[in-house]
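Recap from last week: sequence in, structure out.
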Amino acid sequence: QVLAPLAADISGSQFLDPDGRFPNHVPNPENKEAMASICAATLKAGADLGVIFDTDVDRAGCVDSAGREINRNRLVALASVIALEGNDGGTIVTDSITSSGIKAFIEQELGGVHHRFKRGYKNVINEALRLNQAGVNCPLAIETSGHAALRENYFLDDGAYLITKIIIKAAQLRGQGKSLESLIEKLAEPVESEELRFHITESDFKSCGNRILSALEQYARKNGWALADDSREGVRVSFGAGQGEGWFLLRLSVHDPVMPLNIESDVKGGNRLIAEKLKSFLNSQQGLDIASLKSFLS
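Predicted structure tokens:
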């Protein structure tokens, strides 16, 4: 109803009829099966762009003409390019699990400021509102999950608005003989990425989780690990050459009795090295089921 009247070819679209049973795939831009489906459809149609939303259209992802996903860190990077146009030196608020490559891309390639905050789309939006009220030029709040809110759209959590901005940019670039991919080609991406989830077995899971995070910070300092100076959630540590060449973030889930562990590395086998460094510490902590770590290492 929007694109067709503008002469866009949408003949390759799929699954447009509403069905609350979701018989084709989970409606989630982070789901591997869902992204594989839209990637395949984009290639089959020879389309310039593929787009995917969740059920209430507050999250989105997209696919370039080569069938490559533009979601998670790549979507953060693309949205940052668009948001910083006319906002030189502006601040981009993201959630805590964005890659180290995102920080370098926003600050070194785009000339912006990366403000890594907490998980939860309300958290990143509220932080962006706070920064603007404090006089900081902050045009975008975005989560790796696909939640995105732009200041020009009153910081509404609106996936359709972001995709509209991306479509406009894609059309502009095509007129110049360029592609969306060219905007984020300098984004450094990890070789390995993993998320493990540890269930907290104690009834007061928040107290347990905070105790473990406090102990981990002390453990990291004692072992000379490089604690991130821009982390505002959990404990984030980076490792250099020969030590895994990546980072981990252990945090407490916003709502659930779970501690997610995110690990990324720039080298093959790096995630395992980093996980091994954490194993002895996690084994010593009461109230935490680390079966997923043991499975990963085995």
